[in-house]
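This part of the workshop introduces the protein records we will be handling. An example says more than a description, so a record of this kind follows.
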Amino acid sequence: MKAQRAAVSRPPRVRARTTSIAAFVVLAALIPTTASASGTQEIEVALPYVCTLPSGQLPTTVRISAEFPERADAGETFSPSGVTTTVELPAEAVADLAERGAAQVRAATRLEVGVAQNEATAKATWRGGAEPVALPGSGPLTLVSKGDVPSVAGRGDGDLTFTAGTLAIDLALEAAGGAASTDPASTDPAAADPAAPRSAATGPDSGSGSGSGPDSLTVGCALAEDAPDQGLLATVRVGADGSPSPGGSPSGADGASRSPDREAQGHGREERQGDRSPEVLETAPGAAPDRDDVPPCRYDEQHPPTDVSLNAYVTGYANVNKMKGAAYLPPSCLLIEQGIPVDGPPDPEHIIFDTVSWANFHYQGRKETPPFPSTFLSFDFAPVKATMVLKQTGPIRIDSRIKLRLSDFTTVTDTYVRAPLVAHVTDLEVNGTPLDVGPDCRTETSLTSVDPDPANHPGDHLVLYGRGEQLIGQEATGYLLLSGGTLSGETSIPAFTGCGTADGEDLDRLLTASVSGPGNHIKQVQGQTCAIAAPVFPTPETPGQCTEDLQPYEIPVAER
């Protein structure tokens, strides 16, 4: 919709001031955020680690930075923000990677973090991803990974401490002049969780890392014995004064009480100890929107389904570095045509299948998201409301590689989603006054990511990655196309064009200066798909996948 200017004229200085406010905050309006509030502590810790590579155990420096609140109420959930893990692998590690034929690496990190309160403990895994980095000709290799981390809540009063533990680094290796691997991590199930039992070949104390072949390597790292403060990252005071709750018996790191009557009290005390342990939530708390509040997601006469048609809702957040906040993408409909698996490359230890699927957003017959408005106070006094839409410039491609390990039939699926999406700003109001951004205010090109396989996937597009794992007889974890899950990536926001009108201000340069730039993290959640040809309806014994009118039964919740 084209917004019109107010009919009443205003002095030029007042109009220019309002326009400047609008230009500076137009995308901040899309990104509900405020500046860092008082009571936030920024930490940056350098810790010594010992990492195991094919050449042996090597000393490594790991730098961890994040923002924590200084204080929280008992039971209040919070999540560390701006988490960055920087790993500096020594020159010997670079030589190891070069001997495997690598010219470039792409890293994913998994840092185990101990969370303790009044000696009761819990564990969290901080996951991050890094952009591809070329191997240096000499010297160390620096990998910088960023990502979201689980939320935490203290159960009572008392300091809540965060301590670094084991670190796993999944490396996808790319040869010079060759395509990048689609395996960003080892297929060893232990590599999926640094807290899981590891085989002798992949543990931090082993003689070599383990990967699925020359195109991947998982490096296990252990905190060095001389690490300062035993790896302490941060302390958050919980409660009125941070002192322990009255009557709370202390517990050791293993959760065992130090009270002399421990054995006499028996199992009941163990349960109470568990109730006192800090709560770690893998996803931020939230509730799914009501179905009446999300757009329909069904096939129709203009978009008839086939035997391989799926539909699903997706939602999520996208960071904008310059505005220090995250834009919320409400649940949006995705229509998917699932591909047919074909044989992948030969592997003596696995059966490999590759699948290419295609998808489109579907909103009122168009390949775009619903418009999503946001309202906030700019400079704490000027109410701003803006609306944005993501529009496709081509089909969304979904590449999945399924690896079935012959020894135990464990499957690992790596999925890359490539989406050409242009961001359009459609409406803007400042202090109730519409500002005309014109009919075609948008980014010049699609949101852009570094593609792991640019030779086969040229052009501007967003890249999101997800990994799913399934042990035989157990439910799958992580992301799978059929069951959904979390996808993440990093994008550059291009310059803006077409913003403003012929008789109004040109907002292109101001929007570009305020918003455009690299390094913007995206986290998207896809819900369970509905298979149109074989729908699964809810029963007292079976979770639903489809509604009666063949819409996705699950409406996912966005995660930060």
About this structure: The CA atoms of residues 68 and 480 lie 32 Å apart.
